[in-house]
């Protein structure tokens, strides 16, 4: 499984990667600090199975980014978030396509 994680805040991106690694230990995880870089990877032929994207990425909203991703890679499942802790397992279980997720109380989602 190929998973893309996109967030323009480096410390959060590193934390997100750790959470994803715990939830999907056998996955290949590729991180991007810019949406444009992730889109370029998709344009060059990479097809992520799952993509975790921040709701607001520098220069583009996470929802607009999801639309662009789907145009290039229709089978990619997408989870939009503003914090990933606690939602990663649920996003993978639900196959996360087109589901905006917000962990508003900081405790994440309960499964």
Q: How is this structure best described in words?
A:
By secondary structure, the chain is an alpha/beta fold. 36% of the residues lie in helices and 23% in strands. It contains four helices and seven strands; from the N terminus they run βαβαβββαβαβ. The chain has helices at 10-23, 35-43, 62-72, 88-93, and strands spanning 2-6, 28-32, 50-54, 56-57, 60-61, 77-81, 99-100. It has a five-stranded parallel β-sheet with strand order 2-1-3-6-7, with helices on both faces. A two-stranded antiparallel sheet has the order 4-5. Helix 4 (88-93) links the parallel strand 6 and strand 7 (99-100). The longest helix is centred in the first third of the chain and has 14 residues, at 10-23. The protein is globular and about 30 Å long.
Quick summary:
This protein is an alpha/beta fold and 111 residues long.
Shape: globular
| Biggest sheet: strand arrangement | 2-1-3-6-7
Q: What is the arithmetic mean of pLDDT?
A: 80
Strand content: 15-25%
**Largest sheet data:** 5 strands, parallel
Termini, distance in Å? 22 Å
H/E series: EHEHEEEHEHE
User: What structural class do you assign from the helix and strand content?
Assistant: alpha/beta
Q: Helical element count?
A: 4
Low-confidence stretches: 84-89, 98-111
Quaternary organization: single chain
Radius of gyration over C-alpha positions, nearest whole angstrom: 12 Å
Give the strand tally.
Answer: 7
Q: Helical residue percent?
A: 25-40%
């Amino acid at each position: 499984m190929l998973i893309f994680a996109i967030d323009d805040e480096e410390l959060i991106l590193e934390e997100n990667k750790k959470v994803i690694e715990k939830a999907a230990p056998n996955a290949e995880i590729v991180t991007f600090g810019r949406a444009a870089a992730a889109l370029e990877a998709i344009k060059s032929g990479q097809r992520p199975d799952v993509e975790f994207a921040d709701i607001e990425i520098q220069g583009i909203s996470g929802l607009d980014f999801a639309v662009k991703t789907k145009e290039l890679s229709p089978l990619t499942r997408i989870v939009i978030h503003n914090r990933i802790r606690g939602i990663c397992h649920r996003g993978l279980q639900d196959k996360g396509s087109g589901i905006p997720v917000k962990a508003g109380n900081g405790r994440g989602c309960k499964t």
